[in-house]
């Protein structure tokens, strides 16, 4: 059995269950391809992150980085858990507004927020705008003046620390498109501009060092660095950040080769480092914010597919093709992300072959899993790819004009549709035929 599954997830029929519901039944009821979330896993991860802050009596926010998976229902679950959210676009903010998510618990991120997006954020009184660059400080100043408003802000800095991970998803190194550079003095200049601005309330300092990180070291270095900056700002500008935000990036298990730390371990290391550094620097203990995305949405998600055609290349390999692929999960094609899968009606059966799990899209690179050991399967069997909850549906496309899948939430044996499957009519909804004169 895949190590990502527990015994409780196998029912009496020997089938995979998700949130207490037979995955075969979910596939039959909602059709495939289907994204399914076990909601109790989402809640659990948030609670585990929170527990260490609570136990240490540290002021905190666990702010879900919603780009991992942003829908109204997801925001409602985060709200039920009293979490915060990060948004990075007008569209994510709009979704949060539609979900009635409390705007005071929203952080607005992004390295090129437009004037319209900033206007929307200020009008809706989002909790904090995380400033990324000088252009944005100027734009926000104009927007605040126009609306005669004020806003809490944070400064995103690049701490000069690179986490050991894939370069496309690593952001903390100096040569990054995100945030104010530290060494060259940009961060200090930004601070002075913000402190001099009556409409901006400088709440704290932010860094995000990368994604899918398995080690504590990067977080400890970043946390220490942020406290040093805080101490520096205190000495030089008599300003002390209320909040130190160390971002997200906590690694999860996709395959048996991944050995992630527990959420508690990450928070424990971050809290200890900040406590110690603050004491060393004679600073008051700040509030500590974290921004997990993948680690909240990822492990809770399953993509269900129906097995279709098969190609056996004599003497070489076999391609087992499913009814989805890069349109609903671009990660394998985009950065060679790896997953594991099981057949939902025999997740425990011993494998008898190793196949490429291929998608149905017209790209040779549309391979969901390069090497998957499986028992014998036949067309019509349902395959569950595990741990697909982050950056899967949220990156889905209509490539080849395939409709995007439906999304279902399951908890305590009850399932509910939270995003409808796109229809063909949806696909042409925005198309305009040529006028006769054209
Ligand atoms: C993407 C992102 C996160 C979340 O990263 P994960 O790897 O999904 O945890 C957090 N903070 C910022 C600023 C981000 O851009």
Automatic annotation (TrEMBL):
Protein name: Diaminopimelate decarboxylase
Catalytic activity reported: meso-2,6-diaminopimelate + H(+) = L-lysine + CO2
Keywords carried by this UniProt record: Amino-acid biosynthesis, Decarboxylase, Lyase, Lysine biosynthesis, Pyridoxal phosphate
Lineage: Bacteria, Bacillati, Bacillota, Bacilli, Lactobacillales
One Pfam family this sequence matches: Orn_Arg_deC_N
Swiss-Prot/TrEMBL GO biological process terms: lysine biosynthetic process via diaminopimelate
Active-site residues, Swiss-Prot/TrEMBL: 362
Function: Specifically catalyzes the decarboxylation of meso-diaminopimelate (meso-DAP) to L-lysine.
Enzyme class: lyase
Family statement drawn from the similarity comment of this UniProt entry: Belongs to the Orn/Lys/Arg decarboxylase class-II family. LysA subfamily.
Necessary cofactors: pyridoxal 5'-phosphate
Organism of this sequence: Secundilactobacillus silagei JCM 19001
Gene that encodes the chain: lysA
Residues annotated as domain Orn/DAP/Arg decarboxylase 2 N-terminal: 40-297
Residues given in the record as pyridoxal 5'-phosphate binding sites: 249, 291-294, 391
Xref: InterPro entries: Ala_racemase/Decarboxylase_C (IPR009006), DAP_deCOOHase_LysA (IPR002986), De-COase2_N (IPR022644), Orn/DAP/Arg_de-COase (IPR000183), PLP-binding_barrel (IPR029066)
């Amino acid at each position: 059995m895949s190590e990502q599954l527990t015994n409780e997830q196998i029912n009496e029929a020997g089938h995979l269950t998700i949130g207490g519901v037979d995955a075969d039944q979910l596939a039959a009821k909602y059709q495939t391809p289907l994204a399914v979330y076990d909601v109790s896993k989402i809640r659990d991860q948030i609670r585990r992150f929170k527990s260490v802050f609570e136990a240490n009596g540290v002021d905190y926010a666990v702010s879900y980085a919603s780009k991992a998976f942003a829908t109204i229902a997801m925001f409602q679950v985060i709200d039920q858990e009293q979490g915060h959210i990060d948004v990075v676009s007008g569209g994510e903010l709009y979704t949060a507004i539609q979900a009635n998510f409390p705007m005071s618990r929203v952080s607005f991120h992004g390295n090129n927020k437009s004037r319209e997006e900033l206007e929307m954020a200020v009008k809706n009184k989002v909790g904090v705008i995380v400033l990324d660059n000088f252009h944005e400080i100027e734009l926000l100043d104009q927007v605040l003046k126009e609306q005669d408003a004020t806003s809490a802000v944070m400064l995103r800095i690049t701490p000069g620390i690179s986490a050991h991970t894939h370069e496309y998803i690593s952001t903390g190194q100096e040569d990054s498109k995100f945030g104010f550079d530290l060494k060259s003095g940009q961060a200090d200049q930004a601070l002075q501009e913000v402190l001099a601005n009556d409409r901006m309330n400088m709440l704290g300092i932010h860094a995000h060092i990368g994604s899918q990180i398995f080690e504590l070291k990067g977080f400890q270095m970043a946390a220490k660095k942020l406290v040093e900056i805080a101490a520096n700002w205190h000495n030089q500008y008599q300003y002390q950040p209320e909040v130190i935000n160390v971002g997200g990036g906590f690694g999860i298990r996709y395959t048996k080769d991944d050995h992630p730390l527990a959420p508690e371990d990450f928070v424990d290391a971050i809290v200890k480092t900040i406590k110690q550094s603050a004491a060393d620097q004679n600073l008051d203990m700040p509030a500590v914010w974290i921004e997990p995305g993948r680690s909240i949405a990822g492990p809770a998600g399953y993509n269900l597919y129906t097995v279709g055609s098969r190609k056996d290349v004599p003497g070489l390999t076999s391609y087992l093709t499913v009814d989805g692929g890069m349109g609903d999960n671009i990660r394998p094609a985009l950065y060679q992300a790896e997953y594991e899968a099981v057949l939902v009606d025999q997740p425990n059966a011993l494998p008898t072959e190793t196949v490429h799990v291929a998608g149905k899209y017209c790209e040779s690179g549309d391979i969901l899993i390069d090497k998957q050991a499986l028992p014998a399967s036949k067309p019509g069997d349902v395959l569950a790819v595990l741990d697909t909850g982050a950056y899967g549906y949220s990156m889905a496309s209509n490539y080849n004009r395939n409709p995007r899948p439906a999304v279902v939430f399951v908890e305590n044996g009850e399932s509910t549709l939270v995003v409808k499957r796109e229809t063909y009519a949806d696909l042409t909804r925005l198309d305009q035929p040529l006028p006769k004169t054209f």
